[in-house]
Design goal:
The structure holds two protein chains of two kinds.
Chain A (H helix, E strand, L loop, with lengths): L2 H6 L3 E4 L12 H18 L8 H32 L2 H6 L3 H17 L3 H20 L3
Chain B lengths: L21 E5 L12 E5 L11 E5 L6 E8 L4 E4 L2 E4 L4 E5 L9 H4 L2 E2 L3 E10 L5 E2 L5
The chains are: A mainly alpha, B mainly beta.
Chain lengths: ~140, ~140
Amino acid sequence: MSRLTRWLEPETTVHAHCDIPCGIYDPHQAELAARTVARMVELIGQIPAGSTEFADRQKLVRCVAIKEQHAEIVKHEIQVIWSDYFKPEHLERYPDLHDRTWKILKLASKNKQNIDAQAAAELEAAVKEFADIFWSTKK
Amino acid sequence: MTTETPEASPPAFHSPDRPLWRVAVAESSMAPALLPGDWLLLDPTCSSWPRRGAIVVFREPGTDTLAIKRVAARPGDRVRISQGILHLAEDEAWLLGDNVEPSIDSRRYGPVPLDALVGRAWFRYGPLDRLGPLKPLR
């Protein structure tokens, strides 16, 4: 992702809290969270290997914590869209939907367990595909 | 082209001691004015509650999550609630969602103190087809 896109990206999510199921779903949060996971892996990679500097250790701890937190957000957001939004007719159109969802959840867990740029890129791509499927059912 | 300097704070994460300029909206109690996925610019420099009808981001009392609602009443105003009339203190605002029925707002958690205010939302920069300043209502 370009530096410009990264610069434009919202820093966080604000909630217009709702009490009832409103039927409005959006995979955007999952995409943002997956991007964050990838970015954290990138930032962790920039920390000098073997550094015992306090600042580096603090950055590492922070990045790891945020990575795990956002991998969990990916899992939550994807699960909600999967269980609450998608209907049997969507499954007819995308028979691999369950499998895709399952794989995203597994990938998110893998990203929690490891610091792995490849896994982070796969997660981002898989969430993007999931989002594309979601939007295609809105057309 | 400049070289990238290491970031003090990672993106997509907001610490309470840093001003917040760009946010994404989740959930729909502010629909149709704001929809989930909207990208907004904030003015984090406001030091008092903006005028009635303005859209604000604040830390929700009780949960401390970042919430977005509209200013329905400002400090000193009177608000009619089921138990009678509530007189807002000098630092308090009454914040409501546009979708009054399903919204979780001041009717649930009461008046919001000024120190919970994070910023005023003033511009939508995404999606591009709805780009523009946010209009205050009422």
